[in-house]
Amino acid sequence: MSRLDNEYLLSQLEECAKKLGIGVIYENLSLEDVYSAGGFCRLRSDYILIIQPETPIKEKIRIITEAVKTFPLGELYLKPVVREWLEGPQE
Fold it and tell me: What is this structure's pTM?
């Protein structure tokens, strides 16, 4: 997948997350000796994905994909390329 395709897929996955009620936040998570590219959590009744801004785009796609796939997607309208990505094997 080319860089442009990755950027498009990332934007579509962010939109999918939004439709599912998942907030996607790009925030610096660095602590002194700890590094995390990001993660998915639930705070009270809100679902939140926090991702390091400098995380490589393929890793951002992986993090959002893993979170989105935990929700039922059957009735949700997704562009065909996004549905194929979510239902197919990941690169």
Answer: 0.84
Is the predicted pLDDT of residue 35 greater than 70, yes or no? no
Taking only Cα atoms into account, the Rg of the chain, rounded to an integer number of angstroms, comes to 13
Tell me the three state secondary structure of residue 38: strand
User: Pairing between strand 46-51 and 38-43?
Assistant: antiparallel
Phi, psi of 61 (to 5 degrees): -60, -45
In angstroms, the CA 79 to CA 48 distance is: 23
Q: What is the DSSP string of 39-66?
A: EEEEETTEEEEEE-TTS-HHHHHHHHHH
Give the pair of three-digit tokens for residue 10: 């990332």
How many CA within 13 A on the CB side of residue 87? 10
The CB density around residue 88, as the number of other CB atoms within 10 Å, is 8
